[in-house]
Specification:
The protein is an alpha+beta fold. It contains 16 helices and 23 strands.
Length: 499
């Protein structure tokens, strides 16, 4: 019987199940979107039960399309939107509140409160992260303080906390009937509750944030056999890999050597550089995070530049401003003008992430004249993604001392060739797109397949990686400098909008 590996890819806007063969090619896939819930400005929520139901639905659909069953799968891996926080009742299996999404900014007041004593980098040495609304620990604190009865249940171990990987794993492995309550090192490193050096929950952080240890999952390697799946469609399959989505893309792009980097273009944009088995503390506004840990091996670390809004800006132009009907129409619209008409969009809808970390920044459109058209806005939106990536690359080069020579790219936006060319132009390095662009799901599949012996080692994975297309810089140096200088001016205008 031919064996494959399945990957659950639970993202910010949709859930997917993709089946891969031994060469890392896609055999079958299914996808379903879930609702984005906005109760107040700056608040973003998901219905965790809807996500679970959608996940089970796409697993069934993907297997049915290829005529496969659970017995055809050597292993299943999970990759997930990171930092999104769920608290659920251990007895009923029901969430106590909607999931708080990574983009949610309701914990801004906590950030300000904790920053008063020791500044924004107060916990950076221990956790690798600045104080920001982005991470899960403060979201969990909000749930414990604002949901009636939540703290009492959490302290008694009757309420369980998890990021989406933990929520899915617990439900897949039995739920209220003995579900496994775990997370992996990559997701744990995004809570601001894990100690980078020990890869365990940090007692001091739990004390400062007021988090009871009884509600926290066990931290496991990213590639390990965690247990058997009990749901009808996947019954008997081994769950053997968990990686936060950006770390999964790093593994999917086979960036296993220090200095190798990838950039994922999705709702947000996330660039990770492998720094090896020692964490590198950032002085330039980047995050120090876990890259992956394979069973029986030391953990590998990464520097990360997280950008909140990239693909989401395209959605905003489509849904809020009605500039076009479907997202792919942005490329021909942007191509219909020679350049951006000196228009710049800084999409600080929920503050600015790396390398600025300005919670109080908000979005601006700068450089408008009567000459500007919707085509210039479309082009400025695509270029905003490339400029933000350059901000992160410069910070990464400064921290690591390693000069970027090329950039491996993946994610939904890499189909946009205008963006890819401008990315090469503004970085002045080649941009390389692999044959399989679903690197997030592929990374989760790789982690699961390594744990079960489907792939023997990382060299097997490297052998699968192939170039689809590359773009080389073609912009004159003076134009590059002019654009980037103007971008920096526009970013300054976005700062400190919220008092």
């Amino acid at each position: 019987m031919t064996k494959y590996v399945g990957a659950i890819d639970q993202g910010t806007t949709s859930s997917r199940f993709i089946v891969f063969d031994k060469t890392g090619n896609i055999v079958s896939a299914a996808q379903k979107e879930h609702r984005q819930i906005y109760p107040k400005p700056g608040w973003v929520e998901h219905d965790a039960v809807e996500i679970l139901n959608n996940t089970n639905e796409v697993i069934g659909a993907s297997l049915a399309r290829a005529g496969l069953s659970a017995s055809n799968l050597a292993a299943v891996g999970i990759t997930n939107q990171r930092e999104t926080t769920v608290l659920w009742d251990k007895t009923t299996g029901q969430p106590l509140y909607n999931a708080l999404v990574w983009q949610d900014t309701r914990v801004d007041q906590y950030v300000a409160e904790f920053s008063k004593d020791g500044g924004q980098d107060r916990f950076r040495a221990k956790t690798g992260l600045p104080l920001a609304s982005y991470f899960s620990g403060l979201k969990l604190r909000w749930l414990l303080e604002n949901v009636p009865g939540a703290r009492q249940k959490a302290e008694a171990g009757e309420a369980l906390f998890g990021t989406i990987d933990s929520w899915l794993t617990w439900n897949l492995t039995g739920g209220t009937h003995g579900g496994v309550h775990i997370t992996d090192v990559t997701n744990a490193s995004r809570t601001q509750l894990m100690n980078l050096a020990s890869c365990d929950w940090d007692e001091d952080m739990l004390k400062v944030y007021g988090i009871p240890r009884a509600c926290l999952p066990n931290i496991m390697p990213s590639s390990s056999i965690y247990g058997e799946i009990h749901t009808p469609v996947l019954r008997g399959a081994k769950l053997a890999g968990i990686l936060g989505d950006q770390q999964a893309a790093l593994v999917g792009q086979t960036c296993f050597a220090p200095g190798e980097a990838k950039n994922t273009y999705g709702t947000g944009c996330f660039m990770l550089m492998n720094t090896g088995t020692e964490p590198v503390q950032s002085k330039a506004g980047l995050l120090t995070t876990l890259a992956y840990q394979f069973d029986g091996e030391k953990p590998h670390y990464a520097l990360e530049g997280a950008i909140a809004i990239t693909g989401a800006l395209v959605q905003w132009l489509r849904d809020n401003l009605k500039l076009f009907d479907v997202a792919p129409q942005i490329e021909p619209l942007a191509k219909s003008v020679e350049d951006n008409g000196d228009v710049y969009i800084v999409p600080a809808f929920s503050g600015l992430y790396a390398p600025y970390w300005k919670e109080s920044a908000r979005g601006v459109i700068a450089g408008l004249t009567r000459f500007a058209t919707r085509a210039h806005l479309a082009r400025a939106a695509l270029e905003a993604t490339a400029y933000q990536t350059r901000d992160v690359v410069e910070a990464m080069e400064s921290d690591s001392g390693i000069k970027l020579t090329s950039l491996k790219v993946d994610g939904g936006m890499v189909a946009n060739e205008l963006l890819m060319q401008f990315q090469a132009d503004i970085l002045n390095v080649p941009v390389i797109r692999p044959k399989v662009t679903e690197t997030t799901a592929l990374g989760a599949a790789y982690a699961a397949g390594l744990a079960t012996g489907y792939w023997h080692n990382t060299e097997d994975l490297r052998a699968n990686w192939q170039i689809d297309k590359s773009w080389t810089p073609a912009l004159a140096a003076e134009k590059r400098d002019h654009h980037y200088k103007s971008w920096k001016k526009a970013v300054q205008r976005a700062f400190d909008w919220v008092d």
